[in-house]
Amino acid sequence: MPARVINEIEFRQHVAQTGRQLMWFLGAGASRSSGLPTATDLTWDLKRRYYCAQENQDVVAHDVSNRFVQARIQAYMVSKGFPPLWDPTEYSFYFELLFGKDYAAQQRYLNEALATGKISSTIGHRALAALIHLGLSRIIFTTNFDEVVESAYASIAGKNLTTFHLEGSYAALEALNAESFPFYAKVHGDFRYQSVKNLSDDLLHNDREIQKCLVAAASRFGMIVSGYSGRDGNVMAMLREAIDQNNAFPHGLYWTVTQISRVEAPVRELMDYANSKGIEGGIVETGTFDEMLAKIWRLIAEKSPDVDAKVRSATTKQVKIPLPPVGNAYPMLRTNALRITGFPSACGTIDYDGAVDIGELKSVLFEKQPPCSVCHTDRILFWGDGKEIAKIYEPKRVKSITSFEIDDLVHAINASTYFKSMVEHTVATALVADKPLMLRKQNKTWYAITHHEQAHSDALKSMRDALSRKDFDGKLHNGVVNGRVPGLKDVYWAEAVSLKIEERDGQLWLLLQPDVWISPNKMREEATVFLRKKKIYRWNKQASNLLSAWIEVLLGGVGKGDASVTAYKDTEHSAQFQISMRSAFSRRSDKNV
Fold it and tell me: Which of 93, 318, 448, 565 sits 20 to 30 Å CA-CA off 515?
């Protein structure tokens, strides 16, 4: 029975309402935004050190983020017969390669890499610390060695968080049984202690006492897993043991990920197994750890102003910085921004008798896909066919469907991300209407994608021309806009462009970013080599030509003048936008001449 994919809004509301009954399990991904390296970062650093020592090379640490440097180092590792890239044993293999069984050397390395002084407090950890402080989250387990959570808790609560690691781990179960909450347990230890578990023999086993604590807690609490890839076989076995007991995770098991397409196979297998056991929950696409906790924190009703101020740490304040004087020097730089010169002054609104359950409304809209764009600020707003919304959501409670005047659309976009999302959806819908394109959404971004059945449409000729090229022998390669990905069964690619809206200096801009879409999207990583080859020529002239081609496909022309596009034609609340067909250009300012 495959694991459920949980709606993010539904998940956030569940956490806000039942947080006291949910424990957290954090992996390295939860600490990344704090400035500390993940297991992947440490693995690459160890590879770099070994490569430089063996080959007498000088590769500085920050160069390892360059994919060409990574390719050179990885090729050397492969030539030595070392584990392939992304192999689950890579992390422990390279630790053993450099340190052997020398725990002292390992500790010195980790002490430098994970030093508390390198921690940069982020809203995600401050929000989690605030939930702990308010008693809305009581137990946290982690595979991490660092002190990010402890530091955040100290800054919020003004005191230390009770922490259990491999030294004194027996006390974790005692704390659970005595309900001595909150507490924080490190299943692989703390880098300050010799018993940190990092080498291959160590990673075969968690500390048994901490494992007993987690399994026991799983019969009373639900759990949220965040920032963890599921690559440690021993940790996954521990979670499976917890699932196998009676009344496992009574308040649900939720595995949060930045992108659904990047869920590791062991995670899917474990969540499928949990689902087969009747455990509520599933996989949730939440964006980053910081994004997830910031959104959860907004839903908490019990927060006091002083704690809220500590979580937010910084407040936004509008400032006006004058633009530099316009210059007339070359070179001119072409941007990917098109000015939106006209937009609707009204949309539709639905008035219901009583409160609206936003989570339920979102679920219905996702399932039924009515021909409209919808958002909820202090009311339900929409463009499109309001009667379709009323038909599928609480029709007996609908009081009226009327027009709503938008005083200042630009201001409304800045004031509400929900309204901005509705505008982006509407503009994207208008741009693909009556064209050989499909509209898809990945994370929070809309994409226009060439339709496989209309690849030879006249409307796509400009794109095929832009993609045509001559090789070094003068042979012409005709442009192709979509097809199958070689070597991957039932995997397809298509030319695509992301569609985003941004406000700059009081004006709205449509940002176009040409890309290649992979379907199904979860296979994108498998198609990395194909994508690199597909995009290798997309620099300067071809990139400019491809941008022009997309403008022509979406707006019907390139150059002077504005194009008019309409979403939800023939409905009472259609939306018309005027968009410039010439992308913005920039010259150097007077100061840089």
Answer: 565
